[in-house]
Every structure is written in C-alpha cells, then in structure tokens.
Amino acid sequence: MFAIGEASRQSGVGIETIRYYEREGIVPKPERASNNRRMYSAYDVGRLRFLRKCRDLGFSLADAKVLLNLSEGDSEDCQSVKEMAELHISNVRLKINELKRLETALNELTANCNIGNVSCPMLAQIRTY
Q1: What is the value of pTM for the model shown?
Q2: Residues whose CB is less than 8 angstroms from the CB of residue 67 and which lie 6 or more positions away in sequence, other chains included
Q3: How many Cα atoms within 13 Å fall on the side-chain side of residue 48?
Q4: Strand pairing partners for 38?
Q5: Exposed e or buried b for every residue in 89-104, given b needs 16+ CB within 10 A?
Q6: Is 54 exposed, middle or buried (0-12, 13-18, 19+ CB in 10 A)?
Q7: Contact 22/33 with Cβ under 8 angstroms?
Q8: Distance CA 119, CA 129 (A)
Q9: Are the C-beta atoms of 33 and 7 separated by less than 8 Å?
Q10: Residue-wise pLDDT tens for the chain (129 aa)?
Q11: What Rg, from alpha-carbon coordinates, does the chain have?
C-alpha cells in the first residue's frame, strides 16, 4: 500500500489531480489507514497510470473514464474503443488543420515585419482582422 505521494510518483499523476479524480468519482476513494491517510494499492496506481496515458494521448477526461471502465469490465468492448479512438483521431486531424491555418496566417504576418521599424506592420494587420 502506498501513500498519495508515492502513488503520484509511481503513476505520474499529480497529487491534486488524484484528489480531483476521487472527488469527481473518476476513481474510487482509496482505503484509509488508521491515521486517516489515503492508502493506494498497486491496482489503484495502475488505474491512475491508465488515466494518465489516456490524457497523454489527448483523450478528454470523460473519454478516459469511459476507457478505464471498459478496461475493467467483464468483457472488453473493442468495437466501442475503436469508435472512440476513430472519433478522437478525427478531432485531432481537425485541430492539426486549424493549427496549420494559424501557422500560415502568422507566417504571413511576420513576413511583413522589419527589424527596428517604429510602426509594426503585424500589429496594423491584426487591427484590420
């Protein structure tokens, strides 16, 4: 059994995030020691690690919770997981396209900048957007 600091270290999830997950019911509240300190099992740490990996992949917290529940169910629903992942991939592609448009716009704006200019063409252009 591990105290919250060790569970945080082993899972890579911050202490305040662990407390938040517990408050929001994303993970069950852990057992308490006689001194009322939270105590986490290796299984609890595994759950936290799973959530961190989902978040690292960009899944929303709600989706990460669904994936965690699916991973702990009696039968893993691979089709549901695939559908969630495909939707997530679609959203990632949309964000990539938005970022590419943003990069193009910023490149166009900064291309007009001259070092040492008193009047900044980039700021003037932004004002007209």
Answers
A1: 0.77
A2: 50, 54, 59, 81, 84
A3: 29
A4: 32
A5: eeeeeeeeeeeeeeee
A6: buried
A7: no
A8: 17
A9: no
A10: 999 999 999 999 999 999 999 999 999 999 898 898 999 999 999 999 999 999 999 999 999 999 998 888 776 678 889 999 999 999 999 999 999 999 998 888 777 776 656 677 777 777 776
A11: 23
Which single residue is written with the structure tokens 């105290």? 3
Written as one letter, the residue type at 27 is: V
| Single-letter code of the amino acid located at 64 | A
> In this structure, what token pair is assigned to residue 41?
């099992």
Helix (H) or strand (E) holding 57: none
Q: How far does CA 40 lie from the centroid of its chain?
A: 22
* Tokens coding 96: 């990539």
CA dihedral 107, 110, 114, 117 (to 10 degrees): 170
Q: How far is CA 7 from the centre of its chain?
A: 19
CA distance 47 to 70: 12
> If you search the block for the tokens 């900064």, which residue do you land on?
110
